[in-house]
Design a protein that fits this description.
The structure holds three protein chains of three kinds. By secondary structure, chain A is mainly α. Chain A contains eight helices and no strands. Chain A folds into two domains: 104 residues, no CATH class; 62 residues, no CATH class. Chain C has seven helices and ten strands. In chain C, helix 3 runs parallel beside helix 5. The chains are: A mainly alpha, B mainly alpha, C alpha/beta. At the A-B interface, helix 4, helix 5, helix 6, helix 7 and helix 8 of A face helix 1, strand 1, strand 2, helix 2 and helix 3 of B.
Chain lengths: 201, 181, 229
């Protein structure tokens, strides 16, 4: 299953997911509270250092995940430049980069299954209150299972369009794709019911 | 009960798929990313509560590290970024869209869906979206709104398309449009 | 009609050169042999990594406008192929893409329905049709565009025998060249030429009866180890 977890092994992979998330929260609070350019530069240097530990390839992968941020960095600098407050803009931009990069670091070094476990652990209080949390785990599995299936069918439908038109597929293709979702949901529900369904003890 | 869970799960998958396929083209030839339509569809088709759950499920998986946002983005980083306001807005938008759809049960599907999609999918979505940008980027509301303004015409069109899709879906599979149940 | 291609594509098809001129050609092979890739290449839906594909002089991958009026392709599952909610819209779509205006396209769609005696299907939602009927809609959509070459990619999967026979009869009467991709030999009875693809290359190529017999023999000689499990 395609996740954003990096295949490059890092020492961070071994740290428990819950601990990394807690660390991320603390670090993000720190980033928000600190407000000087010096602090932000230091923070970014530290984050860059963290990325360098597993090697340059890992750093490059991390930079790849940062691509969407550059647009907003430019936006911030533009607006703050127009109002004559470039310094503040730089602080914000650096804070943004550090925060996103740290969050990405957790994503890149945590396995999907471990993170799901953290989620289910977090939902445990709800289970004690009587909320049935089993369907949630099931729903996660279902989505992960069906995205590639639905994607394949969507691509078939797009091919069916391209076979009859030289133009890029139009929005109408979304209808049969949606029908696939509806019909597959029906079939899976049937299969579920045939195997006992969500029997609550 | 099983059917509701599977519909929620498969619509969450649908949001992902609509973001992962190559962009569609409008009649004029302009390319659009269909993912926003997916959010609106969750509301117009599944209704308020289930639509919101489908979107929350989708966001949960994005947070868990699946590259499901348009362009193959995902992970915790997107929640630390300036678009987090929009991400928070997604389930709220689906909820309000679904709510309006359910309230307008008496009206024909297409006009109900278009009103629901515009109010829920655009107005309600942009409020947390813009506030998020204001908070994260230290912009004024005006600056943030101006930055996002170019996207609104495209979103209006997406609302229309989502309404057309809901209407067509209602004709093809009426029992699946839970907002009308 | 004169399909020539030499290429190595994604190591799915290795350095394949074929010139397809016979009116009825079958392409057999096991799952994963490259049949589907070949069908997409002939239709121009994918471009080869190396080499070129031309159909009746049209470079199908590059010149999509000319390609759609030259090659038609029928896929396996109508539910993954029919895009529009009503039959007439679905048929008219291809005609509009060929450049006809709305009225002409609708008339063309009705004419095609009339040829098959199904004018009453015009406004019907596709969802109300049976599986076999949906297969027919797909066939009509392709025929409406009067292509010179029609590719069939396992078009009869899941249909009962009478329906399959009826669809085969319609296809037998079609003037276009037919290239039929299948792993089912019975579907290719009476064809002129058959090509057996194996592992991205040609294992056998020649008169249909002989080639299919060789293919059948080889398939029956295979043990469980060769199964796609």
């Amino acid at each position: 299953m395609l996740t954003l977890t990096s295949e490059i092994r890092t020492p961070y992979h071994r740290i428990r997911a819950g601990a990394k998330l807690a660390g991320l929260c603390a670090a993000t609070v720190g980033l928000v509270v600190l407000d000087s350019l010096a602090a932000m530069l230091l923070a970014n240097a530290a984050v860059a250092g963290l990325y360098l530990v597993p090697g340059r390839a890992f750093l490059r992968a991390g930079l790849g995940l940062l691509k969407p941020v550059w647009f907003f960095v430019a936006l911030v600098m533009l607006w703050h430049g127009l109002t004559g407050d470039l310094m503040a803009g730089a602080v914000i931009a650096l804070r943004l980069i550090a925060a996103v990069a740290l969050a990405n670091l957790v994503t890149m070094t945590s396995r999907f299954d471990d993170l799901v476990e953290v989620v289910m652990w977090g939902l445990a209080p709800l289970a004690r209150l009587g909320v049935n949390t089993a369907p949630i785990g099931f729903a996660i599995v279902l989505v992960v299972r069906f995205i590639p299936v639905m994607l394949d069918k969507a691509r078939l439908l797009i091919d069916a369009w391209r076979a009859r038109s030289p133009r890029r597929p139009g929005w109408q293709v979304a209808l049969p794709i949606t029908l696939v979702a509806v019909d597959d949901a029906e079939h899976v529900a049937e299969a579920l019911r045939a195997r006992g369904g969500f029997d609550m003890d | 009960m099983e059917r509701q869970v599977t519909l929620i799960a498969l619509f969450a998958a649908l949001i992902a798929v609509l973001g992962l396929v190559p962009k569609f083209a409008l009649a004029s030839g302009i390319p659009i990313t269909a993912q926003g339509m997916g959010i609106m569809l969750c509301g117009t088709v599944l209704g308020a509560r289930r639509g919101a759950l489908a979107v929350l499920l989708f966001l949960g998986l994005v947070a868990l590290g699946l590259p499901l946002l348009a362009g193959g983005r995902g992970g915790l980083g997107v929640f630390a970024g300036p678009t987090v306001g929009f991400l928070i807005g997604f389930p709220i938008a689906a909820f309000v869209t679904g709510l309006i759809m359910e309230r307008m049960r008496g009206a024909p599907v297409f006009p109900a869906a278009i009103i629901a999609a515009v109010i829920g999918g655009i107005v309600v979505l942009y409020i947390p979206g813009i506030l998020g940008m204001v908070a994260m980027l230290d912009l004024t509301v005006t600056q943030a709104t101006l930055s996002m303004a170019p996207f609104i015409p495209g979103d209006l069109i997406k609302a229309g398309l989502a309404a057309a899709l809901t209407s067509a879906l209602y004709k093809a599979r009426p029992s699946s449009v839970l907002s009308r149940a | 009609m004169g399909v020539t291609h030499g290429f190595g594509s994604r190591t799915v098809l290795r350095d394949l050169t074929l010139s397809l001129t016979e009116p009825r050609i079958g392409i057999v092979g096991r799952n994963g042999s490259g049949k589907t890739t070949l069908s997409r290449l002939i239709a121009g839906l994918i471009a080869p990594d190396a080499g070129q594909v031309t159909v009746a002089g049209v470079a199908v991958a590059k010149d999509r406008k000319a390609a759609i009026r030259t090659v038609g392709i029928l896929f396996q599952n109508p539910d993954h192929q029919i895009i529009f909610p009503t039959v007439e819209e679905e048929l008219a779509f291809g005609l509009r893409q060929l450049g006809q205006d709305k009225t002409a396209a609708r008339a063309g769609a009705r004419a095609m329905l009339a040829r098959f005696g199904r004018v009453d299907w015009s406004e019907r939602p596709v969802a109300s049709l049976s599986q076999g009927q949906r297969h027919l809609v797909c066939l009509m959509s392709v025929l409406a565009m009067t292509p010179r070459v029609i590719i069939l990619d396992e078009p009869f999967a899941g249909l009962d025998l009478p329906t399959t026979r009826a669809l085969r009869r319609y296809l037998a009467a079609v003037p276009a060249q037919i290239i039929h991709v299948s792993h089912d030999i019975a579907a290719l009875a009476g064809y002129d030429r058959a090509i057996w693809l194996e592992g991205g290359g040609v294992a056998a190529d020649g008169p249909a009866d002989a080639t299919l017999a060789a293919y059948l023999q080889a398939m029956e000689a295979m043990g469980d180890a060769d199964a796609d499990l």
